[in-house]
Amino acid sequence: MSTPSTIPDLAALLADDFDFKFVGEGAANIIFEIIQSQEPDPLLHDKLLRVPKARAIALDYLHVQEYWESSVRPLFQDGDLVNQVLVHLGACSAKQNLIISRMQAAVSSVEPTRRKDFRGSTVGETEYAMLVDDMRAARSNIKGGGGFEILLEFKPKWLTQSPDAPANAIRCRNCAKEWLRYHDKLQKKLQKPPKLQQSFTPDDKLQRRQTQKALPLPVLCTIDLLNSSSCIKARERVLSRLTDPSPTSRSTVALTNAIPEGSRQWRLLSRWLEGNSLLKRLELAQRANDDPEHLDRNGRGKRKRGGCLTALVGQENPELDLAMTLRDCTCFLRIPGPPGPPPLERAGAGGPAEEDDDDDDEQGEAAATEQDVEEESVEVEAKLGDLDKKNGAAKLATWQALERRLIDEGFYTKRRPRAEWTCALERTDEDEDED
């Protein structure tokens, strides 16, 4: 457990010529790469620095780290989580100010390219920061390859149905939320007034009716993530969603490069979806904290608690806070690239064409066999991150309002209009083939 007396001092770990490079940001935090000319301290090796933004509405880092160590990490196995280490920014104010000023300079250097709603936000004057595992794609394979890795990030979200959902629900919590999101976006579009000097013709009315019937793009049904281990069709659907790099995709947080169907990295991802146990552990942890047994209000007997709708406002709901924390994590997948140099280099690209030879076929078959054997030994690196504690006291009213909308307005249960995808809960058993 981290205590102030055991927390490392970042200033003492940095060389004199240190600097920072902006890597990314969210609503409450900014991520930096630490730049040094000399070999870094072992504690900084393969680590990024995460710091809170100024005026961000979030729990302090000391509280966040204590919660991660005591409540989150025990739920998983070694290697399941993006590791995080709390550090002091500086033992004295001068060092701390120097570190913060150089981080702010790194942010200012990329200001024009930042997301519009993030522009202007700055590094907070904070005492603590976090060192987190660097999960970016490496230029070459970690395990003996020469190709480029691909980094895939996605949100597993609700791997089990909401305990507040109606018994006749045909959509999981994630699919229902996507329907609501699409509905609100469409309503906002339809409420826009027509352009000036433009009359509203019958054709416009027809177009509006057609727009109302328009269907949202396919999204990732997160229950399919679990079904991928036993169902080929579910795995194919997940693969098609996760390997789509288009900005309109609502399934993937980030994908560094496209993953062509049938490619080596596509096969490695498919094998991981079929055989991984990480998502199952995450699903079990979500479910366990959704439905804990509690004494009733009079202390007599036990009752099963549901989700956020049965949580009591003004009282602590630690299980719900943990369940919602586990639903907002990010899954990072580093998928190794092809081994060795590119095929053209191996074939001597640029040289004279060679005559066909029967021996070439035999050598090709042998090379393919060796490649298959090598591929069996390569694994996708998978870790869960972004597991900061959810502030249930501040968010409970929002969670409850959203859940009531999903129920009352039929986003769990309505069958029309049909989407380009169907939720796993809506499909019949005949629609699915097991491996």
Approximate helicity band: 25-40%
Structural class: alpha+beta
User: What can be said about the biggest beta sheet?
Assistant: 5 strands, antiparallel
Query: Which strand-content bin applies to the residues?
Result: 5-15%
Question: What is the mean predicted local confidence, pLDDT?
Answer: 80
Radius of gyration: 25 Å
State the strand order across the main sheet: 1-2-3-5-4
Give the tally of β-strands: 11
Output the helix-strand order.
Answer: HEEEHEHEEHHHHEHHEEHEHHEH
Number of domains: 2
Supply the number of helical segments: 13
Q: Tell me, what's the shape?
A: globular
> Which stretches are low in confidence, meaning pLDDT under 50 for 5 or more residues running?
141-146, 195-202, 294-301, 341-356, 366-370
Task: Please report the distance between the alpha carbons of the first and last residues.
Answer: 44 Å
GO cellular component, one term: nucleus
Organism: Rhypophila decipiens
GO molecular function: ATP binding; inositol-1,3,4,5,6-pentakisphosphate 2-kinase activity
Biased composition (Acidic residues): 353-364
Structure at a glance:
The protein is an alpha+beta fold and 435 residues long.
Care to describe what's here?
The chain is of the alpha+beta class and 435 residues long. The protein has two domains: 10-134, Inositol-pentakisphosphate 2-kinase, N-lobe (Phosphorylase Kinase, domain 1); 173-347 and 362-431, no CATH class. Helices cover 35% and strands 13% of the residues. It contains 13 helices and eleven strands. The protein has helices spanning 10-13, 61-72, 93-108, 173-190, 202-213, 222-227, 232-242, 264-275, 278-290, 318-327, 343-346, 358-376, 392-408, and strands spanning 19-25, 29-35, 47-52, 84-88, 128-133, 150-154, 252-255, 293-295, 302-304, 330-335, 381-385. The strands form three sheets. Strands 1-2-3-5-4 form a five-stranded antiparallel beta sheet, with helices on both faces. The protein has a four-stranded antiparallel beta sheet with strand order 7-6-10-11, covered by helices on one side. Helix 9 (278-290) packs antiparallel against helix 10. The radius of gyration is 25 Å and the shape is globular. It starts with 9 loop residues before the first helix and ends in a 27-residue tail after the last helix. Mean pLDDT is 80; it is low at 141-146, 195-202, 294-301, 341-356 and 366-370. Its EC number is 2.7.1.158. Belongs to the IPK1 type 1 family.
